[in-house]
Structure formats: C-alpha cells, structure tokens
Design goal:
There is one protein chain. This protein is 39% helix and 15% strand. The protein has helices at 4-14, 45-61, 76-87, 114-123, 142-156, 178-197, 224-238, 258-261, 276-283, 304-309, 315-325, 339-346, 356-361, and strands at 23-26, 29-32, 34-37, 65-67, 96-101, 161-167, 201-207, 245-251, 286-290, 329-335. The strands form two sheets. An eight-stranded parallel β-barrel has the order 3-4-5-6-7-8-9-10, surrounded by seven helices. A two-stranded antiparallel sheet has the order 1-2. The radius of gyration is 19 Å and the shape is globular.
C-alpha cells in the first residue's frame, strides 16, 4: 500500500516543475493534486492499451493518484491499472490506488442481455440477495461489497487497496428510506473496518454523484455528519482503534460548483448548514473530486471569470487548476486515456492554485 516514506520520496524526485501546493497530504501519504480517472472508454483491448500507456506516463510525470471502480469498462479499468502498476518502475508504495464497489459489474464486455446476466451471475449464485438489489444494478450490502473487494484485489493484482469507496450509495434511496440506507452503510463500514484491520484495505469512504451536493430536501441527499457517525459505530463494532473512513469523492468543476456553493450539509457544531467542502474540512475528511473537466465539456470553453483569472496555458489546464484550488480538495481526478492527455493535464500543476480569497472571488 502507499506509504509516507515512499510517497515523499516520489514527491521529492518530481517536485521541481510543479507549483506550490501540487503535492498534498493525505493521511500519512503525500499525493498529487491531479489524479488519473479511468471511467470513460469502450471495453476493448485498444482502449486498454491506451490507458496503460497513459497511466505509465502519468506515474513518471508526477501523478501518483489512480482512481478506478470495478464496474468501469466491465472490470477492464481495474485490470489495466493493475497491469500498468506491474509494468511501471515506480514503487507501488509511492502510488495511491483507489477503487469502488456498489454497481454490479459486467466482465470484460457488455452482455447481450444485461438483465439476464445479472440474474444468472449474481442473483442465482447468491452473490446478491434480490431484496438488496436496487434499480437492477446496485447493491451495497456487506456480503456483496466484500465479494467485490476481493474481486478488485484480484483485478488489480494487489495485496491491499489504499482507498476503497462504497460507490454512489444514494442510488439506494430510489427504493429505500434514508435510515435504511444509513443502517446498511454502517453494516458495510463494519465489514470494511474488519478488512482494514486485516490489511486488505488501508482506508475507505464513499464516492457519490449527487448525495453531498444537493439540499437536505432532495431525494438523493445524504448527511456527511450521519455517515461519519455510522463509521464511528462501525469502528466500535469491529474493534478498531479509530475509523478508517478518511475520504469522500464527488463531482466538482466550473459547471458543477455545488460542493462549494450549496449549503446542504449539517455543521458539526449544529450551526447553519454549510457546503460539503467545508463540512469535510471541518471533519478532517479528504475530498477527491471527479468530473473535473465535466467529461471534456470544459476542455475548450470556460466561464469568463475562470478564463480571465485562473492560471493555465490552455482552458483544460485552467479548468483543472480551478478544481484543485477549491478549499478542502486533496486531488482532482480527470480521465486520461492517452499520453498526450496526461502531458497537457499534468502541466496544470506547473501553476500555483488560487489562494482561498481569490477562489471565492470567482463567485462574486
């Protein structure tokens, strides 16, 4: 797993071209404020090869955060991350590897009849209980998540995963009450605490899409305060010294700034509602942002305030600098499936992020 000494050595060897604040603390490790995302792309050998080349380039170029999920590209994204790590000359302990479990994954390619595939491969085999399956594709029950964790370890060919997310738990709210979802998260967190104690996972969290960016009355809303309380209960149940819940993931970009602008989360001191970036910072929880260039929409066109005030040689670099400048952000993830993308994106890190007051001024 990623270690403090190895990640600091990685930083020290590659620090020179980067601006202040490019490398940031995450627990005992030091990580790049840009990370490689692996969501997009067809499940083909050709795309696998491009991702492998991009990941190798990223690791050599100063990007030591790799983010994936078991369902991305029918498990191929996890497997190509493992392949690249095996081929790279970079020390495994210098790299933060994150993955996710929750959505039912296909295996290698999309089956002709996805519904029948889920029935035969997951329901009939008992991997998923029918009552735990939501929208025909999502399950966060502890037994299921544990099977997915084991499969992710196999796909990645790793002995441990640095950061394991429960993937989009708000999906369960389509058919479950919030209290039921929190109860299931607590049970799954307990299982992850046990796996952390066994050394299979270093840290865990939740990766979300809407849950933390919407107001409390929204049907997809989840409370970070409540989730952290459930993690503390899980730690007590598992007998660990302290919760291993250390991070959340959510979208944040110039077109989706709600994590900074929407006061939808309870404050730990029971004060007025606050945005999730502030709530996470107050709780000591790291934030990894996804969709940092809105899946390419911000690669060439930006709002005027960002285009005029955020440093960067190209719009995509400005978009990434905007994302990683938000107070409380540890690393901003961006899909990089070609070495040329890596070179352009990593160059964002040559520029200093905005100071907090300059960032806030963008919204005035």
């Amino acid at each position: 797993m990623a270690t403090g000494p190895a990640t600091r050595a990685y930083r020290d060897e590659r620090q020179e071209p980067f601006g202040d604040g490019y490398f940031r603390a995450f627990d005992d490790a030091v990580v790049s404020s840009l990370g490689v995302g692996t969501y997009l792309g067809d499940p083909t050998d050709a795309v696998d090869d491009r991702y492998a080349s991009a990941i190798l380039t990223a690791l050599e170029s100063g990007c030591n955060v790799l983010d994936t999920a078991i369902n991305y590209r029918c498990q191929r994204s996890e497997r190509v991350v493992g392949r690249a790590l095996a081929e790279s000359e970079i020390d495994r302990e210098a790299v933060l590897v994150a993955t996710k479990g929750g959505f039912v994954p296909f295996d290698g390619s999309r089956p002709p009849d996805p519904g029948q595939y889920v029935i035969e491969e997951y329901l009939d085999t008992g991997i998923v209980d029918r009552e735990d399956l939501v929208a025909g594709s999502h399950c966060i029950a502890p037994d299921y998540v544990e099977t997915q964790l084991d499969r992710s370890l196999e796909n990645l060919d790793l002995e441990s995963i640095d950061l394991y997310y429960v993937h989009n738990p708000e999906t369960q709210l389509r058919e479950r009450s919030p209290e039921t979802v929190y109860d299931q998260l607590e049970a799954t967190f307990t299982r992850l605490e046990e796996r952390a104690a066994a050394g299979d996972v270093d840290q865990y969290g939740v990766a979300t899409w809407e849950a933390f960016r919407v107001p409390p009355e929204h049907s997809s809303h989840l409370s970070l305060v409540e989730i952290l309380e459930r993690a503390r209960a899980a730690s007590r149940a598992a007998g660990t010294d302290e919760p291993h819940f250390r991070a959340i993931q959510l979208p944040f970009n110039a077109a989706m700034p709600e994590a900074f602008t929407v006061a939808g989360q309870d404050a730990a001191d029971s004060g007025s509602p606050i945005p999730v970036l502030r709530a996470a910072a107050d709780a000591g929880v790291a934030v990894f942002t996804s969709a940092s260039i809105a899946q390419g929409d911000l690669a060439s066109t930006l709002p005027d305030a960002i285009a005029e005030r955020v440093p960067g040689d190209r719009p995509v670099q400005q978009a990434l600098t905007f994302a990683r400048s938000a107070p409380g952000v540890t690393s901003s993830l961006v899909g990089m499936s070609r070495p040329a993308h890596v070179e352009e994106n990593v160059a964002s890190g040559f520029h200093d992020p905005l100071e907090d007051d300059a960032f806030e001024a963008l919204f005035e």
